[in-house]
Amino acid sequence: MTPDEYLRSLKDQLNAFPPRERAELLEEIASHFESGEEDPHMGREPEERRQKTLAEMGSPEQLGQGLKKVHHPDGWIDYLLVIGPILLDMAVVYSLHLADPAGSQAFRIGFGLACLCLVLIGLRRHSNLLVLTWIEIFATWVISLLASLGQFLVPKVILDPADLRYTMVFTSPDALQVRWFRGLPAGEGIFWLIMFAGAIYLLGWIIWRNRRDWLIVSYALLELIALAGSYAVPLLLHQAGWDKMIEGVKFRSFPAMMVWMDLPILFTLLGFVMWGMLFIAYKRPLRWAALAGYALSAGLQAGVYMYRPSVYALPEYFQLLLLPLAIVVVGWSLERSKKRPSPVIA
Amino acid sequence: MSQLQQLRKGSTPLLILSVLADEKMYGYQIMRELEQRSEGYFTMTAALLYPALHQLEKDGLLESEWEESPGKRRRKYYSITNQGKKALAGTRADWQTFMTNLFKTLQPAGKVKEDSL
Description:
heterodimer, A: mainly alpha, 15 helices, B: mainly alpha, three-stranded antiparallel β-sheet, 3 strands, 62% helix
């Protein structure tokens, strides 16, 4: 192999990188070759020096893998690993409205295990965003599971498992909740609780490990707030007596539910787009802008779902709406105050 | 991977930070300096060195700048940041404690007693 062949092979390895960053990486390695070929300690003849330098390189595959592991340029795969399962879950859950109880129960267990698998995939892919996203979805789901039964210090509320953030508390228990959650064996509850504790530990570990990367820390805090919110909601609804009030409300059909949810769906779609930018964008400022957009959509969603005069006073509602955005602004300010160059890709 | 190889791989960031403690260097220069200081014991392939350099830069322990030189390709120089210096001091102390205790433990029991008398 010649240095040119090596660089060509490395270029293939780095094809997931944006052109400018790939060109910089290749230039750095090309200058390494040049230094080796000029170094008299590497041999008397140019060919000898070239071969010795090549021998010290390691394979282009190894080098490419190492650089990808650090810079993580194929964020679109991570994005698909978030959006794909979520859309699939929504489709399956809504179709399960018509399914038999045994099928719902199997899907419940399948969903929890799928979340855990996606966390593991995220760890394997060294994708903090992917891991954090699925930790939050999984942990919120566990809380909703426990809230449906009033187990492990989570107040019992009637909720629709089709939505992970307690959005459709109006749906009838007869239509959904009973089918979904009835018959949760005690052992299964404990299993999910242990997994929940592991997920929270992992979340803390990721924050600690990435404590110098304010973008990741801010995203992790957003997920943590969403998680705290998912516990706070049954608590607040319980205190406000909502769990008793909703008993008689009739189940809405899926199309009617969509009309009722048009605003939240709009915010959810905005969140999906922002997620995409956050996962895929290469430029740091663009990723911060995407995170701010995501935070705003999360705040708006929470606001739309959760504003009820009996639960929140208006100032609290606005705090809730703006808190995620405030976290991103603080994170961004802290990164800027460090005055050091941002990583090529975080 | 053997335990020794794992140990060597684990010490890569420390070795790089040590080499860059006094002056900025480019990748190839770091490899040579490392080899020279360790009298050939620590050799590192580029496939290991460059990802490690980029990771340290991402962690804020190193920073880099491109420098032009006439008639040659430009080179990317790495230098240690203040945060990197602090990390180096901390890691050095940890390794010193580890090595001292390791050697103490590895010595035959009789030798330890003799030394302590």
